[in-house]
Amino acid sequence: MGDAAITGMEVVPWLAYAWAGLLALAVYIYVVLDGFDLGLGILYPFFPKKKDRDLLMNTVAPVWDGNETWLVLGGGGLFAAFPLAYAILMPAIYVPIIAMLLALVFRGVAFEYRWRTKRWLKYWDAAFIGGSVVAAFSQGIALGALLQGVVVEGRAYGGGWWDWLTPFSLLCGAAVVVGYGLLGATWLIMKTGDDVQARARKLALLFGIATLGFIGVVSLATPFLDMNYYSRWFEMPGLFVTIPMPLIIGLIAVLMLTSLRTHHHEYRPFILSLLLFALCFVGLGISMFPYIIPPDVTILEAATPFKSQIFMFVGACFLIPLILGYTAFAYWVFRGKVDPDEGYH
């Protein structure tokens, strides 16, 4: 931009990149918060007793609905700050997005109704399990569809109705389901005790190993989806950034698996699983930057003009700390173990 005066129709790079960072942060917070929440539904079949299932739900009962605030913020922020990306991306992944939203509806209704019926309890439990699995799987498919590339013609989506359905997107869907299962299991280690915690620790080890396997397979497949990905990961100067990534992930993986085998570590497995997801997000950013819709639309091309973005950015700078504040306060109030004989319902 130089010293030229900023007009309303110009796109300012630092502001567009700051917005991209805010959206990435919102999506990451949603993934880790709603991830362990969805993970409990994924783990539900491994806890067949009603008392154990009640305990699982009570670990998130005070906070679960607030977790999805970040999904709304991410989607609304994409529409407001990068409307071109929103207009192209949504038609490309309508099916998984609609499936995710319907699954979240079924899951949310099941969360409330299962406490108020005995006759229909098994059906609401099934809805809770199905909603959790479908929501997680749909999110992974949407991510895979974005990574593999979206066909763009002019300023609109130019692909077909089923372009999102590929072996790679299905692989990403399964990876997200397993990863959320890991988050849910490590959350239970932190929030429960006795038999439920012991079973959660075993499940965390199982899902942890599976998650690391999926991370490895997806990481190996991604560079071959597009030459831009390949050059960023395997050619100079990108190697200076990418070489440490598998080493750091390997270190976090060893620490996490070790903590799962050490019974006095209750908080460490959950924290390390969050770090593992954070590193995956960093790797995703390395692959995609500077594109918001690979391989054709960059962050700057999709951004709204300066006046629109700065107006919303100032609001976001007040809103995001507020959301973080009340979210942190809610988790602080309901910190500690959940008593199996008590609950919030």
Name the average pLDDT: 85
The stretches of 5 or more residues where confidence is low (pLDDT under 50) are: 1-8
The amount of helix comes to over 70%
Task: Measure the end-to-end span.
Answer: 57 Å
Please describe what this structure looks like.
- The chain has 345 residues and is mostly helical.
- It has one domain (13-333).
- It is 72% helix and 3% strand.
- It has helices at 13-43, 50-58, 64-67, 69-81, 83-92, 94-113, 121-147, 167-191, 194-221, 227-234, 239-242, 244-260, 268-288, 299-302, 306-333; strands at 152-153, 156-157, 291-293, 297-298.
- The strands form 2 sheets. It has a two-stranded antiparallel sheet. It has a two-stranded antiparallel ribbon with strand order 3-4.
- A hairpin with a 2-residue loop joins β1 and β2.
- α1 (13-43) packs antiparallel against α7 and α8 (167-191) runs antiparallel to α13.
- 39% of the residues are buried.
- The model is unreliable at 1-8 (pLDDT under 50).
